[in-house]
């Protein structure tokens, strides 16, 4: 079967003075047409770097040091700059975290929309404006004709993010990568943007990679989830499987750490310690110093992401049997 | 001991040791400062002692040239003084005035910057307006104007007697806005940080918060501009002296030496201008290089890079 | 009727951001006029807090919740209203008069990077409040107390001579909590203490806060925008919108049967981990700015139940039984159940 | 935008009044208008009569108001040395200075923008390192030394260019211009290079650091993600945003060139305002000195105000809301 996107053994390094540090260590996943995937993890997990490396836009000093990103049959890591330019914003678009920073403050919304279309299509300004208007209407911007002439600072945060969504969808891309698109926004606006994104992706058949730290948000929007920890995917599967029946001890801990209102006042399940920084990623399973069920093997052997017997999900853990018992004990909560 | 150990392991020292430019600059700067401090001891002649100066020795080229005299390694100036000694004494004056002026600027500037940044409102608007206007005039222009006024007011004779303290005062008054703006900007950045609010919640007086909590956190930018300001002060002093508004020819700084040599450049006596010029440029350059390095190291934005 | 530890009555706090006289000049219909720009951050807020409880103040950015907290602690002088601490009025006190209350009321901050002075060691940071409030205390006593509190918050006392940048975010937040606990306060305002933290660390800090409350009988005012956290830790909740309290109710009541239309919309917008694709109440329009507040009920422009009265008359916070207070004409009139 | 302009102009007027006050105080303290008019060989009684007549015994404020009134009408007093109105003296010297400043500004702008952009886009390659190294050496050489070196090389040793003066000038509607003759242009080369030597490195560094900062912003990253061409990202998205801070800082810096003309004009014996100013100091010509301070002050204020207004026009935030 042909996937829309297939990321294979992706490896990203940061070239620093003290040497190269591995930020992404062998990440693989696939995405089909019109499929929605959530990349979930805490800060430093490498989820944003993964997202940016798909369109080869990692900030310096990061670089892709291995693996491949196959998009519609082409390996994006091997494309020239010009070849990549035709992919970016055309077939794959991005939505950034902070709408207050994403739009260029000295250019009108119209300019910023039209230039995107003209970068990829041979059309006149008038035609480009018409497409822009249509997209602005789709994201429910009132009186779009007037809005095209305005500058970003004349819009509220929620409106700006809707404009960013409109820009991302201008060229009817096959894939949208949204990097924490609602983290900087208030809850009510978050709900609005998420609904809009979901609605548009569904109606246009656009694939979506939603990068976020918020499992609850992901659970509303995506069909699949990949949980990342310290530059690796530790668990991946269908959304409902991951949420209702997590296998990896990290995922389990993460879900139980979220106060969900079912047990007010009770002590929350806490994972001790913090995510390691790139400099001191522990040997073996990088989660082992924080893991409650670690065994000896975890200290020196890195577990691979593999299918779990009897489940649809995949997890990277040596101690899955123990984890199962652990989960069984808590499943009734 | 603990402080020393901390320093030894610091990023600061680490990045210094990795940076060849910084090391060379530091060594050169240290040498020049030592030379200037020890000028009375190591200089072969005393340029201020008029009894040892013979006008017949004027305009002698450096010793390696045809008419050179081994007594005067770098030749003599128009008054027959040994150029090397005069330069060392001149550098000494430049360093003294430069450091003195920066010290004065720092005191005025930090005080005003702190008041302005912490008080805000009308006080801030007023003080910063003055600083802005003064800066838009450029520190050089302000210094030239103040010294011109002083010279007219005191008379040339008195002015030359008091030149060193007056120059410190002039350059200090001309350049304080740089400090004030820097300190104010960082006070504004710091004062709304939560650790300051925490100190207020504890009940500490605003005086204590200002000087104990905020001030230490404004020191990185102050350190960076201090180096650059020393370079600027030395340049300003040289410029004033060059214009005849600074050190007199009898007690020349590097700037007045260059000035006195300038007229003789057409007759081929290039060394009177060139050697002091090189010394001045090297001194200012190493300070600027160190300042640049310091800015890179202390700027957390680049640090994280 | 339980007694009140904190009683805030009709608190008002405005910020004049118009700048100098020249900045205030504006041109309207060919005439130059003087125009002031005032942010009406907190308008006529009344609240009380029982001893030992956790009152959460929730709302979206710009609703005035942080300003309310800071005004309560005397960091901003209020422009109107009264604040009582155990029946003693504490607004408008001088620094000196305020001192005894400073030891009783403390604060925990949001940003683990900015809340500790980077130039002070942990030891210095923690010693400062206790030495300041007890000048006669001996050095060894101070050291002992610092070590004790550090242990309580889960930071190894032997790290006392380290600087904040040597700690992780979670540890910094623990140190920040330790600083607040040093003077043995009764009342702690926590301003978004877990918003900047990752979920796994957030759970650690929430547990620590709950433990400290249990051990010391602390009273919390918890400022946050995260409703799931609110639901977990608070006994009562005040919902703020544009500088006003629109609903004040016990947590269970609020989450099960929210009254005010804004509360309903807000609650419906929280994504639920287990309830996929639930419907949320979409609000029309944009949040007005606190510089240009709408007349009448501040929510009327976006409210699906607003009528003419709502756009003219400001609703007051009315008692709806069993400690539930709602500021809404529709509820008061029974138009909205 | 209108309100913004009104504010900036009002501020400029206030600053001018303060500069006037400073100038007036200097005149009061160290100047002697009686001497300026009649010289030193006049009896005490006559001087006193003249003082009274000139209103020099009036209260300070009254005299200040009169001083400002006169200044607005273009009367800044008489020069003791030239025996002519000071403003007239200054205006006759102004074209020389302004042409020098203009030529230098042109050199600075034309070189610093491409070099600044180039070094920002390629921060680590060899040409950039050479440019940046050169720029730090550049800021470390005093203007007067650059000027002397230029004279020594190109005038004394090579005899390619003249070493002093303005050369042949043409009078165009009262403006003595050196731009229109070959000789005038030749004379302009060395002084304008010397004058630009101090600001050029600063401008390169300013543009580079602002541009690098802009290149790091989210909106530039978003522009890459939209698949725009490099040229559009660099020269429209990044450069337009770089321009805003560069206009504010750079505009003021170009005004500051006037200060450095005092140095270059001295070295090149360029008959401009700076040269005249130093002569006035040597001759204790207080009125001329004060007039120079006020004229140059006015020049600075005008430059700053224009820079602010241009900034307001370029920046949509100010243009539309009138607020900073």
Structural class of chain C: alpha/beta
Radius of gyration of chain D: 24 Å
Largest sheet of chain C: 8 strands, mixed
Q: Please describe the biggest sheet of chain D, giving its number of strands, its sense, and whether it closes into a barrel.
A: 2 strands, antiparallel
Using DSSP, what is the number of strands of chain D?
Answer: 2
Q: So how many helices of chain D?
A: 13
The CA-CA distance between the termini of chain C, in Å, is 26 Å
Helical proportion of chain C, percent range? 25-40%
> Which regions of chain C have little confidence, pLDDT < 50, spanning 5+ residues?
none
The CATH class of the domain at 88-284 in chain D: Mainly Alpha
Properties at a glance:
heterotetramer, A: alpha/beta, 35% helix, C: 337 residues, alpha/beta, Rossmann fold, 2 domains, globular
What does this structure look like?
- The complex is a heterotetramer of chains A (333), B (305), C (337) and D (324).
- Helices cover 35% and strands 22% of the residues of chain A.
- With 333 residues, chain A is α/β, with parallel strands linked by helices.
- Chain A has two domains: 1-91 and 176-260 and 269-274, Rossmann fold (3-Layer(aba) Sandwich); 101-170, no CATH class.
- Chain B has a domain at 99-305: MetI-like fold, CATH 1.10.3720.10.
- Chain B has helices at 2-8, 11-18, 20-37, 39-42, 83-119, 121-136, 139-154, 156-161, 163-191, 194-202, 206-217, 219-242, 254-262, 271-298, 300-304.
- Chain C is of the alpha/beta class and 337 residues long.
- Chain C has two domains: 1-97 and 236-294, P-loop containing nucleotide triphosphate hydrolases (Rossmann fold), CATH 3.40.50; 103-234, P-loop containing nucleotide triphosphate hydrolases (Rossmann fold).
- In chain C, strands 8-9-10-5-11-12-14-13 form an eight-stranded mixed sheet, with helices on both faces.
- The longest helix of chain C is centred in the middle third of the chain and has 18 residues, at 199-216.
- The chains are: A alpha/beta (333), B mainly alpha (305), C alpha/beta (337), D mainly alpha (324).
- At the A-C interface, helix 8, helix 9, helix 10 and helix 11 of A face helix 7, helix 8, helix 9 and helix 10 of C.
Topology:
The complex is a heterotetramer of chains A (333), B (305), C (337) and D (324).
Chain A: E1 5-16, E2 19-31, E3 36-40, H1 47-54, E4 62-71, E5 74-75, H2 81-87, E6 92-95, H3 99-102, H4 109-120, H5 125-138, H6 144-147, H7 157-169, E7 175-179, H8 187-204, E8 207-212, H9 215-221, E9 224-229, E10 232-238, H10 239-244, H11 249-257, H12 296-300, E11 306-307, E12 314-315, H13 320-330
Parallel strand pairs in A: 3-8, 3-9, 6-7, 7-8
Antiparallel strand pairs in A: 1-2, 1-4, 4-5, 9-10, 10-12, 11-12
Chain B: H1 2-8, H2 11-18, H3 20-37, H4 39-42, H5 83-119, H6 121-136, H7 139-154, H8 156-161, H9 163-191, H10 194-202, H11 206-217, H12 219-242, H13 254-262, H14 271-298, H15 300-304
Chain D: H1 2-30, H2 33-38, H3 44-54, H4 60-72, H5 86-121, H6 126-140, H7 143-157, E1 170-172, E2 175-177, H8 182-215, H9 218-225, H10 230-268, H11 273-282, H12 286-314, H13 316-321
Antiparallel strand pairs in D: 1-2
Helix pairs in contact in D: 1-12, 5-6, 5-8, 5-10, 5-12, 6-8, 7-8, 7-10, 8-10, 9-10, 10-11, 10-12, 11-12
């Amino acid at each position: 079967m042909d996937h829309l996107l297939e990321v294979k053994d992706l490896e990203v390094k940061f070239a620093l003075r003290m040497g190269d540090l591995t930020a992404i260590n062998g990440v693989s996943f696939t995405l089909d047409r019109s499929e929605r995937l959530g990349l979930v993890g805490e800060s430093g997990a490498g989820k944003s770097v993964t997202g940016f490396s798909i369109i080869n836009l990692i900030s310096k000093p990061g670089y892709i040091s291995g693996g491949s990103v196959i998009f519609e049959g082409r390996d994006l890591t091997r494309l020239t700059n010009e070849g990549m330019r035709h992919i970016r914003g055309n077939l794959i678009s991005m939505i950034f975290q902070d709408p207050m920073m994403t739009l260029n403050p000295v250019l009108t919304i119209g300019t910023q929309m039209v230039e995107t279309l003209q970068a990829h299509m041979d059309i006149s300004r008038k035609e480009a404006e018409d497409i822009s208007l249509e997209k602005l209407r789709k994201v429910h911007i009132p009186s779009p004709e007037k809005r095209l002439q305005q500058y970003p600072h004349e819009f509220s945060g929620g409106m700006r993010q809707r404009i960013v969504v409109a820009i991302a969808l201008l060229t009817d891309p096959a894939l949208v990568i949204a990097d924490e698109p609602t983290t900087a926004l208030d809850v009510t606006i978050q709900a609005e943007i998420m609904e809009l994104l979901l609605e548009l992706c569904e109606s246009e058949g656009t694939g979506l990679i939603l990068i976020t730290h918020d499992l609850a948000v992901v659970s509303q929007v995506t069909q699949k989830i990949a949980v990342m920890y310290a530059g690796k995917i530790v668990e991946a599967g269908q959304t409902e499987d991951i949420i209702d029946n997590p296998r990896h001890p990290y995922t389990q801990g993460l879900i139980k750490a979220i106060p969900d209102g079912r047990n007010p006042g009770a002590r929350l399940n806490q994972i001790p310690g913090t995510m390691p920084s790139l400099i001191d990623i522990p040997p073996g399973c990088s989660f082992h110093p924080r893991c409650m069920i670690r065994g000896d093997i975890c200290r020196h052997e890195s577990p691979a992401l593999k299918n779990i017997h009897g489940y649809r999900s995949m997890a990277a853990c040596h101690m899955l049997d123990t984890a199962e018992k652990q989960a069984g004990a808590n499943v009734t909560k | 001991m603990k402080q020393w150990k901390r320093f030894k392991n610091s990023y600061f020292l680490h990045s210094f040791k990795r940076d060849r430019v910084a090391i060379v600059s530091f060594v050169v700067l240290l040498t020049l400062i030592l030379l200037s401090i020890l000028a009375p001891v190591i200089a072969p002649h005393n340029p201020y002692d008029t009894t040892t100066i013979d006008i017949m020795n004027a305009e002698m080229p450096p010793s390696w040239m045809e008419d050179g005299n081994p007594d005067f390694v770098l030749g003599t100036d128009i008054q027959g003084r040994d150029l090397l000694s005069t330069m060392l004494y001149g550098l000494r004056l430049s360093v003294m005035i430069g450091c003195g002026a920066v010290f004065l600027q720092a005191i005025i500037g930090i005080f005003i910057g702190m008041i302005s940044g912490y008080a805000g409102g009308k006080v801030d608007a007023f003080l910063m307006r003055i600083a802005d206007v003064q800066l838009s005039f450029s520190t050089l222009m302000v210094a030239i104007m103040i010294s011109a006024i002083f010279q007219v007011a005191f008379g040339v004779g008195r002015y030359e007697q008091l030149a060193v303290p007056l120059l410190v005062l002039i350059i200090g008054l001309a350049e304080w806005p740089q400090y004030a703006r820097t300190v104010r900007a960082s006070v504004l950045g710091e004062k709304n940080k939560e650790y300051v609010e925490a100190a207020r919640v504890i009940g500490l007086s605003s005086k204590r918060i200002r000087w104990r909590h905020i001030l230490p956190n404004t020191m990185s930018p102050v350190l960076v501009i201090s180096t650059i300001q020393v370079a600027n002060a030395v340049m300003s002093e040289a410029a004033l002296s060059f214009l005849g508004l600074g050190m007199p020819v009898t007690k020349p700084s590097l700037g007045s030496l260059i000035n006195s040599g300038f007229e003789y450049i057409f007759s081929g006596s290039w060394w009177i201008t060139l050697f002091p010029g090189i010394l001045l440029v090297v001194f200012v350059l190493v300070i600027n290089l160190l300042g640049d390095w310091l800015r890179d190291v202390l700027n957390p934005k680049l640090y994280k890079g | 009727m339980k007694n009140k530890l904190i009683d805030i009555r009709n608190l008002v706090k405005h910020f004049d951001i118009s700048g100098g006289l020249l900045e205030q000049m504006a041109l309207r219909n060919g005439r130059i006029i003087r125009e002031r720009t005032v942010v009406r951050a907190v308008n006529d807020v009344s609240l009380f807090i029982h001893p030992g409880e956790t009152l959460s103040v929730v709302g979206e950015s710009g609703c005035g919740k942080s300003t309310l907290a800071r005004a309560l602690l005397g960091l901003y002088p209020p422009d109107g209203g009264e604040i009582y601490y155990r029946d003693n009025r504490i607004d408008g006190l001088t620094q000196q008069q305020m001192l005894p209350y400073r030891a009783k009321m403390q604060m925990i901050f949001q940003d683990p990077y900015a809340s500790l002075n980077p130039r002070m060691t942990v030891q210095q940071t923690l010693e400062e409040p206790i030495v300041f409030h007890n000048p006669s205390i001996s050095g060894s006593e101070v050291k002992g107390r610092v070590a004790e509190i550090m242990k309580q918050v889960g930071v190894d006392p032997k790290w006392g001579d380290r600087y904040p940048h040597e700690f992780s975010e979670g540890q910094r937040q623990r140190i920040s909590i330790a600083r607040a606990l040093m003077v043995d306060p009764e009342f702690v305002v926590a301003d978004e203490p877990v918003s900047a933290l990752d979920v796994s660390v957030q759970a650690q800090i929430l547990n620590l806060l709950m433990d400290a409350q249990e051990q010391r009988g602390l009273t919390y005012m918890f400022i946050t925008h995260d409703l799931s956290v609110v639901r977990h830790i608070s006994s009562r909740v005040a919902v703020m919108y544009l500088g006003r309290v629109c609903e004040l109710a016990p947590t269970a009541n609020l989450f099960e049967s929210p009254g005010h239309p804004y509360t309903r919309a807000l609650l419906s917008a929280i994504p639920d981990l287990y309830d996929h694709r639930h419907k949320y109440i979409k609000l029309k329009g944009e949040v007005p700015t606190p510089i240009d507040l709408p007349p009448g009920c501040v929510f009327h422009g976006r409210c699906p139940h607003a009528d003419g009265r709502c756009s003219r008359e400001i609703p007051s916070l009315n008692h709806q039984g069993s400690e539930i207070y709602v500021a809404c004409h529709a509820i008061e009139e029974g138009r909205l159940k | 935008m209108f309100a913004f302009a009104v504010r900036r102009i009002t501020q400029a007027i206030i600053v001018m009044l303060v500069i006037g006050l400073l100038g007036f105080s200097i005149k009061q303290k160290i100047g002697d208008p009686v001497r300026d008019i009649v010289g030193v060989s006049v009896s005490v009684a006559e001087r006193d009569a003249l003082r009274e007549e000139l209103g020099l015994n009036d209260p300070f404020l009254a005299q200040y108001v009169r001083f400002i009134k006169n200044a607005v009408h273009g009367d800044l007093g008489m020069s003791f040395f030239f025996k002519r109105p000071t403003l007239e003296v200054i205006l006759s010297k102004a074209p020389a200075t302004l042409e020098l400043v203009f030529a230098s500004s042109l050199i600075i702008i034309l070189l610093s923008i491409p070099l600044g952009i180039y070094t920002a886009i390629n921060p680590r390659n060899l040409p950039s390192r050479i440019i940046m190294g050169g720029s730090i050496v550049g800021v470390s050489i005093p203007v007067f030394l650059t000027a002397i070196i230029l004279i020594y090389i190109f005038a004394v040793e090579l005899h390619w260019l003249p070493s002093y003066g303005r050369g042949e000038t043409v009078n165009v509607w009262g403006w003595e211009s050196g731009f229109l003759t070959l000789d005038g242009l030749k004379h302009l080369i060395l002084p304008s290079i010397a004058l630009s030597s101090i600001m050029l490195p600063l401008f390169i560094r300013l543009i580079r650091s602002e541009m690098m900062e802009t290149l790091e912003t989210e909106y530039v990253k978003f522009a890459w993600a939209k698949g725009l061409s490099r040229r559009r990202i660099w020269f429209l998205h990044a450069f337009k945003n770089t321009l805003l801070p560069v206009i504010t800082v750079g505009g003021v810096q170009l005004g500051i060139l006037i200060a450095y003309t005092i140095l270059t004009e001295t070295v090149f014996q360029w008959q401009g305002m700076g040269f005249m100013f130093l002569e006035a100091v040597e001759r204790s010509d207080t009125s001329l000195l004060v007039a120079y301070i006020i004229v140059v002050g006015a020049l600075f204020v005008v430059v700053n105000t224009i820079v602010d207004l241009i900034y307001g026009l370029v920046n949509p935030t100010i243009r539309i809301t009138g607020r900073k």
